[in-house]
Amino acid sequence: MANHHDAQSFIMHCGEMGSRWGFNRTVGQICALLVITQDMLNADQIAEALSISRGNVSMGLKELQSWRLIQMRHKPGDRKDYFTANSSIWEMAQTIFEERRKRELDPTLSLLRSHLLDNPESQSDYGLQRMQEIHDLLELVATWSNSLNGMKPETLESLMKLGSGVTKMLDFKKKQPR
Amino acid sequence: MANHHDAQSFIMHCGEMGSRWGFNRTVGQICALLVITQDMLNADQIAEALSISRGNVSMGLKELQSWRLIQMRHKPGDRKDYFTANSSIWEMAQTIFEERRKRELDPTLSLLRSHLLDNPESQSDYGLQRMQEIHDLLELVATWSNSLNGMKPETLESLMKLGSGVTKMLDFKKKQPR
DNA sequence: CTGAATTTTCAATAATTTCTGAAAATTATA
DNA sequence: TATAATTTTCAGAAATTATTGAAAATTCAG
Lengths: 178, 178
Prior knowledge:
Two copies of one chain form a homodimer. Chain A is mostly helical. Helices cover 69% and strands 7% of the residues of chain A. Chain A is built from eight helices and three strands; from the N terminus they run ααβααββαααα. In chain A, strand 2 and strand 3 form a beta hairpin. The structure holds a DNA duplex.
C-alpha cells in the first residue's frame, strides 16, 4: 500500500458513510479495508488494522457475508479464516443494489400488495389510490432493478455510459419499432 | 379515509422503514401521512394523528422540506402553517432519488476525486487502483442519475417499462449507429 | 407597540444501536 | 479423546440518535 494516508482516510470515510449505505460504521470500514487490500486478511489483522474488538470484527464479517460482499478463504497450513472482497467493483455494486432492493423496497411492496388485494373498491379512497400509485412505482423499480441483476458488467457499463443519451435512444426506438 | 386501518398500518410501516430510506421514524410517518391524506394538515393535527410531540413534528417537517418532499401552504383567515405532499408519487420518487445521490454518493465521489488527483502515480498501487475503479463507477452512476432528474414522468415510465428489454435495445442501437 | 397565536429551539432524557471482552462453542490437531 | 486454536455469542457498557416539553423566538392582528 503505497500511500498509507490515503488508504486510512478512505477507510474512515467509508466508516462515516456506512450508516447512509445501509450498514454500520465498522462494517463500512471492514468492507473498505478488504476492497483496497490485495492480500487476504484474517480477523485479527482486521481488528488490529481498524483498532476494534475481535468480537466486533466477527459480527461485521458475518454481516458482510450476508450482503454477499466478501469471501472466506483458507491458507494451507493455517487454521485461521481469511477474508477478501468478493469480486470486481462492478459486481459488488450490483450486489449492493440488489440487497438494498430486498431491504428497502420488497417489504413495502409486499405490504402494499396485500392491502390493495384486500380493498378492491380502491377507486373511491384517496389514500388507497395513492398507495396504488406507490405500489405501481415500486413494482416498476423492482422489475427494472431485477433486470440489472442479470447484466454483464460490460453491458451495464455501456448502458450507463449512454447517460442522458438514453432519452434520445428511446425516441429512436419508438420511430423504428423492431 | 375509507379504511382507517390500512392507512394506519401503512403509516406505521413507513415509520419502521424510515431509517432504511435515509430518515428517521417520525419523518417516515409524517411523510406517509401527508402522502395519503388529501387535505392539508397543520402541525397540531400531525402531532395528534401520530401521537408525537409538537417539537418533534416541527423538526420532522423541517427535514421533509429539506428533502423538498412537502409544501407549506396557508388557509385564508388561519394563521397556522398547513402542509401537503409536494407532487405526484413519480416526482417525489425522483426527488428522493436525487437527494439520496447527494447524501450517499457525492461525498465519496469528492473524496476520491481529491485523493486521485493527489496521486497521479496510481498505476502501481493496488489500493489506489481500486479507488479509481470505485470513482469511475460512482461518477457513471451520478451522471446517469442526473439524467433521470430531467426526465418527464412519462419518459421515465416508458423507460422503466422496457425493463430487461433495455439490453436488447442496446444491441439494436449498436448495430444501427445514429 | 402589545399581547396572543404560533413555530422553533434546545437541554434533558429516553430509546436505540453499536461495541467490547470474557465465556461458550466450534474446529482441528495430535 | 484431550487440548489447543479459533470463532461466535451475548450481557453489559458506551455511544449515538430520537423525542419531549418548556422556554425563547417569531409573526401578526388590533
